[in-house]
Amino acid sequence: MMIEVCAGLLEGDTPEVCARKEAIEETGYKLDKIEKVFEAYMVPGTVTQKAHFFIAVCTNNMRIGYGGGAENETENIEVLEITFTKALEMIKSGEINDAKTIMLLQYAQNAQLLK
């Protein structure tokens, strides 16, 4: 298993619609307000796919399901909730090694969003 932020292919949706949909499918949380923070090419020169990065406040009352992925997709997702400090430690230890996840955690750290 790999630890990563929720993500998905646009499949005709706008990046914001996709982000909201994937949050519900993968985590079970319906997000009120999301904010796009940046876009990035993950492997320029090899893959032209651009990733769109969003952040959102998430509270327990936003949970509308259990997550785990859409039933019609073959995803094997376990929702993991850890502290911000623990997540940063997991980058250092190599437990978190997904580029998307590292980029968003470092964005949050640099913007001092979480303490």
Distance between the termini: 27 Å
Whole-number radius of gyration? 14 Å
The main sheet comes to: 2 strands, antiparallel
Helical segment count: 3
Order of helices and strands: HEEHH
Q: What share of residues is helical? A: 25-40%
Q: In order across it, which strands form the biggest sheet?
A: 1-2
- Content-based structural category: alpha+beta
In the predicted model, the low-confidence regions spanning at least 5 consecutive residues are none
Mean pLDDT: 93
Overall shape: it is globular
Strand-residue proportion? 5-15%
Number of strands: 2
Topology record:
Blueprint: H1 15-27, E1 34-41, E2 50-56, H2 84-93, H3 99-110
Antiparallel strand pairs: 1-2
Q: What attributes characterize this protein structure?
A:
alpha+beta, 115 residues
Structure notes:
Strands 1-2 form a two-stranded antiparallel ribbon. It is built from three helices and two strands; from the N terminus they run H-E-E-H-H. The chain is globular, with a radius of gyration of 14 Å. Strand 1 and strand 2 form a beta hairpin. It has helices at about 15-25, 85-95, 100-110, and strands at about 35-40, 50-55. The chain has about 120 residues and is of the alpha+beta class.
